[in-house]
Amino acid sequence: MEKHEPFFRIRAYGTAELALLYSPHLTTQGATRQLRRWIVYNPSLESELARMGYHAGHRCLTPKQVACIVEHLGEP
Q1: Per-residue pLDDT tens for 39-73?
Q2: Angle at 5 between CA 21 and CA 68, to 5 degrees
Q3: Is the Cβ–Cβ distance between 61 and 15 less than 8 Å?
Q4: CA distance linking residue 54 with residue 3, whole number of Å
Q5: What is the 3-state secondary structure (H, E, C) of the chain?
Q6: I want to staple 18 with a disulfide (CB 3.0 to 4.6 A). Which of 13, 27, 54, 74 is the partner?
C-alpha cells in the first residue's frame, strides 16, 4: 500500500484555518494569535502583506497572501 504524503495547496484560506495548519496543537484563538505574532515579528512579511491589502483582523486570506506567508514561513 502506497503512503500518500499530505500536501499543502495554495488557495484562499480563512485566517484561523491557515493558523491551525501551522499550529494544530493550539486552540483556534491561540493559533491565530501565534500566526499574527509571526507576521508582526517578520517585517518583510508584514510589509508585503500590507501591500497586498492585508491588515490585522482580516478573516480571509487571498491565494497571493497565502503564497507570501508560505514563502516567508514555509509550508505548514
Answers
A1: 999 999 999 999 999 988 889 999 999 999 999 99
A2: 45
A3: yes
A4: 37
A5: CCCCCCCCCCCCEEHHHHHHHHCCCCCHHHHHHHHHHHHHCCHHHHHHHHHCCCCCCCCEECHHHHHHHHHHHCCC
A6: 13
Longest Cα pair distance anywhere in the chain, in angstroms? 46
Polymer length of the chain: 76
User: Which cell is 21 given?
Assistant: 495548519
What are the grid coordinates assigned to 4, written together?
500518500
